[in-house]
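Batch manifest, entry 17 of 40.
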Amino acid sequence: MIKIMTRFGEVEYDPDNLLVFPAGLIGFPTLRSFIVMPNRKQGPLFWIQSVDEPEIAFVLTDPTNFFLDYIVKPDTSERNSLQIDETDECFVLSVVTVPPDQKITLNLAAPILFAPKTNRAIQVILENTEYQSRTPLPG
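Output type: structure tokens
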């Protein structure tokens, strides 16, 4: 087990259980290894904590909790990056932004594809989409 100091205090993790983004995240290409933080509260949101830069963490959620018709399917190159085939599970997640005015938004234009089989994830940019990077939660 390895320990790092984060915004959540000291966090201990097993390097074999890291969530790996081989290409990093959009705007954060050097952030490749993350810990999925245990949920302290019930609800659809959870944190991923960067191991590469412990001061950085992101809030994620399953966007279908809020947008039932949101569907993203990985293409062949994305499945290759995730090291999965067509029969393997792939979850779609969105980065959540909580600005000072508390008007929460989801980045539906650049979802994260997560493969539990390999513990790998990639962030992709959807082309020709009506979705926005700061999509407000439905009211």
